[in-house]
């Protein structure tokens, strides 16, 4: 029983669960830019039916984000306010759990901002006859931005967690 409890250590940076969650989260976020599976984007380069599916899914994603952006100003303010509180508790007062949470939520807010920017680029392309090549190009650029943000986030989390764990152990 002690081995199980040691395996499920709930300290953030020393916990295997934190790192597994971080890896799975970034994998899922970068696999579906605006809700369109990446394998479908790859197939859309060769197949007309897949191109139509991509355009349909992008249209759905754009309408969802636009609806949220118009009605969600209060939610966005609350999210950034909550993130600020978590960051201050973590980095100002030294709570490890809040530090770990801030290193997850901060980049995810960045992904949300990237998604909003991508939606603003895609919205004029969708009415009427959308250019599938242009839409795919924008989606791939968005995915690349999310992947770069994810790599930077994981690297910073690893350095911060490593430094925190080393100072915690000593």
From TrEMBL:
Protein name per its UniProtKB record: Component of SufBCD complex
Alphabetical UniProt keywords: Membrane, Transmembrane, Transmembrane helix
Organism lineage: Bacteria, Pseudomonadati, Pseudomonadota, Alphaproteobacteria, Rhodobacterales
Transmembrane segments: 12-29, 73-93, 146-169
Superkingdom per UniProt: Bacteria
